[in-house]
Structures are given as structure tokens and as C-alpha cells.
Amino acid sequence: MNAATARAGKLDETETQNEFEGEIREFIRRDVSHLRRPLPEASEQAVTNITGLLDRVSGSSVSEIDRLMNDLRSVRDFLASEGERVQREIHSYAQLSQVAMTSVKIIAESMTQWKAQVNDPRIDHA
């Protein structure tokens, strides 16, 4: 009977351990179960956080694009004004060139007449 009592003691000890382990498992399931199911508030908070992050990222990108567009407008305006200035300079140069050519023709004709007068034997140069 001693052997039977020893076996019964081991069975009681094994059952007690199994019950204790079962209670631990149940406690862990209850404690961790809220982590498995997303809470509505947590989902809403996550959406809000993601939305805020996207707004910041897209906001800085949009600001950078706006800044670049303003820079490009400034460059376009500068190039347009420089183009107009160059056109005015070319027009002015063309007018100046025309005046210079007319002056050279007048000087050349005057020189030709002068030479003709110097070489003319009928004119007394003394």
C-alpha cells in the first residue's frame, strides 16, 4: 500500500502542476488577448498619426515645388527682360552701323572729290 500511496501522491502532484500551468496559460491568454485584437481607439489613433505624417511629408514636398515654381518664374521673367534688352542692343547696333556706313561713304566721296581737285591741272594750288 505504500506504493499505491506513493503513486497517488505523484498523481495529485501532477494534477496540481497541470492545473497550475492551465491557470498560468489562461492568465496569459487574458492578459495578451487585447494585443491580438486592435482597439478602435488605437486604429483611429494610428490613422491620425499616419495622416499627420503624410500631411507633413506632402506639405514639405508641395512647399518645395511651390518654391521651385517661383524660382522658375523669376528665371523666366529675367530671361524675357534680357531677351528684350538684347533685341534693343541689336537694333541700336544696326542703327549705329548704318550711320557709320553712311558716314564712311560721305567721307570716301569727299576724299575722291579732294583728290580730283588736287590732281586737276586747271586748279592753281599755290
What does this structure look like?
It is a single chain. The chain is an all-alpha fold and 126 residues long. It has 2 helices and no strands. It is rod-shaped. The relative contact order is 0.03. The model has no long low-confidence stretch (mean pLDDT 81).
List keywords for this structure.
126 residues, 0% strand
What's the gist of this structure?
The chain is mainly α and 126 residues long.
Structural class: mainly alpha
First-to-last CA distance: 173 Å
Q: Give the total of beta strands.
A: 0
Radius of gyration: 52 Å
Count of alpha and pi helical runs: 2
Low-confidence stretches: none
Helix proportion: over 70%
Mean pLDDT: 81
Biggest sheet record: none
Residue share in β-strands: under 5%
Q: In sequence order, what are the helices and strands, one letter per element? A: HH
Q: Tell me, what's the shape?
A: rod-shaped
List the helices and strands and how they pair.
Blueprint: H1 2-36, H2 40-119
